[in-house]
Write a structure and sequence with these properties.
The chain has three helices and five strands; from the N terminus they run βαβββαβα. The model has no long low-confidence stretch (mean pLDDT 92). The protein is 37% helix and 22% strand. It has a five-stranded mixed β-sheet with strand order 1-4-5-3-2, sandwiched between helices. With 115 residues, the protein is of the alpha/beta class.
């Protein structure tokens, strides 16, 4: 069962690329922009340079799972596109998740907890 909203077509991805901001680390690149909605939308891009279809789908699943586990801690109202770099090939779940969270922190997209 899908529990997140996704960017669906090329036009939506292009808007994030052209109007958004980006930061990168060793494994991932994260683009984001405001979307004026009350929820986030996620797009994932893994090119053929990363590997064959099995490798690409595994990488996509790891990124999606990293987002799913942390979506409650993210600010809402953003379109995000996560792009896997070639170095992400064959990495484990914890490595991809920490790379994702590193980029979220660089963009200040993590929700601030008030006690």
């Amino acid at each position: 069962m899908k529990n997140y909203h996704s960017l669906r077509n090329n036009k939506e991805f292009q808007m994030v690329y052209n109007e958004g901001k980006s930061k990168a680390n060793k494994y991932l690149v994260l683009y984001y922009r405001k979307n004026d909605l009350e929820y986030n939308r996620l797009g994932i891009s893994v090119s053929k340079k990363v590997g064959n279809s099995v490798v690409r789908h595994r990488t996509t699943r790891l990124i999606r799972e990293s987002y799913r586990l942390n979506q409650d801690n993210l600010k809402t109202g953003y379109d995000m596109v996560v792009i896997a770099r070639q170095t992400a090939k064959g990495k484990d779940c914890h490595t991809i998740e920490s790379a994702f969270l590193h980029l979220v922190d660089l963009h200040h997209l993590r929700r601030v907890e008030h006690n």
